[in-house]
Arp2/3 complex 41 kDa subunit (Klebsormidium nitens), 354 residues
Amino acid sequence: MLAVCPNSNEVHIFRVPPGSVSGSELERIHVLKNHDQLVSGIDWAPSSNCIVTCSHDRNAYVWNFDGKEWQPVLVILRLQRAATSVKWSSKENKFAVGSGAKSVCVCYYEQENNWWVSKLIRKKHSSTVQSVAWHPNNALLATASTDFKCRIFNAFVKGVDAKTDAVGDTKFGDVLMQIDSASGWVHDVDWSPSGEKLAFTAHDSSLHVIDIGAGTPVQTVSMKELPLRAVLFLSETRLVAAGYDNVPFLFGLNDSGSWCLLKNLDEPKASSAEKSGSTFSSAFEKFKGQGAPTDSLEPLKPPATIHENCITTLQALGPAGYSSTTRFSSSGLDGKVVTWELKGVLEGVSGLKL
């Protein structure tokens, strides 16, 4: 099953019909309509089967399936600006909501009152929080912000988390680490499966990876390509990132222990002359022809990549990084959801298949 927002205030849930062998034959079975404005974040908890959504209407809903319909439970976020992203914690007893109000809401369920309540991390960001990511220990929370910084917070909630998960002598909302290596908006952040490494992407066309377990400095991969909007760890040594180039890129550790770009996972099927051009040059050529007669303009060529517009989301499918086959999906502004299957990722790129 698949939950998507078609650029509206609704969430559509699809499934593959019984007997179908092609993912293109999706059937819409539910429409969730409680939000008043654009839905900006969706996360589906695999164990509890609960869906959490957030929206520009400053609200969030937790959706529970009763066997026939999805029933919403309103979460009061107490935000003054739009909610931008949402993620379940690893134990699925909490979720975090980023916002344009320079704050993060950590939400948990109160059994006594039968509702979800929020606890705010305030006055720690200077601008919009674009993305949030939970550490596997369920207590640490990483955020990506348009103030050019990535931060790690203590998100331990007393009475919800186990005492063994407490983070030293720090309190809820304390900044445990602030990373200033980016020179642009930080778009997305993700933890490795073990929680030892953290990666984030910035609008200056850079990828940043820090090995917190080893205590090494931040490694920055500067790219010639357009900025990356999303990042996803596949294993401790491999990750994928994608953005305005409409293709996912595979990154990994080389023999010297440095992170580098390994492969473009969707090489454009075009001539060498076309590959040497850029989106800007194509747009400029079109602009130059604005005053020319209509019959002298060449028709637009079909895109050479699977995605036809910016990739905004990467999602792991199944346990990532623990077998020789890794699957993930990408979705973008072209309205497409694409599933990718990589074989041999952990061994390197010599035998990689797509």
Q: What stands out?
A: The first helix runs from residue 272 to 276. The first strand starts at residue 2 and ends at 4. The chain has two domains: 1-180, 209-288+301-354.
